[in-house]
Write a structure and sequence with these properties.
YaeB-like fold; 113 residues; two-stranded antiparallel sheet; alpha+beta; five-stranded mixed sheet; 3 helices; single chain
Length: 113
């Protein structure tokens, strides 16, 4: 028997709304990326996830642009932190690259205090 998913309430930050306007992304397009991502990675900021979907497929597995959405899950809602259109194809991040980005983020956050 199939289980019924309870919809998650989306909360949009002002930054995400501004980026969506800048890149011409609608809320429905961002929701589509969240519901059917091609790739999910850990975000650079603590407790975040980044989800990617090709903007449009040229052939079966090639594309020219990607749409990325960064979210943070809370107890009852999912906060959309940012959304952007990447003009190319990204490679999946390895653990070394993610560790280096986390170090840089921690240094930046420590300097900002």
């Amino acid at each position: 028997m199939q289980s019924i998913k309870i919809p998650v309430l989306l909360e949009w930050t002002l930054h995400a709304q501004a980026k969506m306007r800048h890149y011409g992304l609608s809320p429905a397009r961002v929701r589509r990326v969240l519901h059917m991502p091609r790739r999910i990675e850990e975000g650079i900021a603590p407790d975040t996830k980044a989800m990617m979907q090709p903007a449009s497929l040229k052939t079966k597995d090639t594309w020219a642009q990607e749409i990325w959405v960064m979210v943070q899950d809370g107890p009852k809602e999912r906060r959309v932190i940012s959304a952007w259109r990447y003009p190319g194809v990204t490679k999946p991040r390895g653990p070394e690259a993610l560790a280096a980005l986390r170090r840089e983020y921690a240094e930046f956050a420590a300097d900002a205090k």
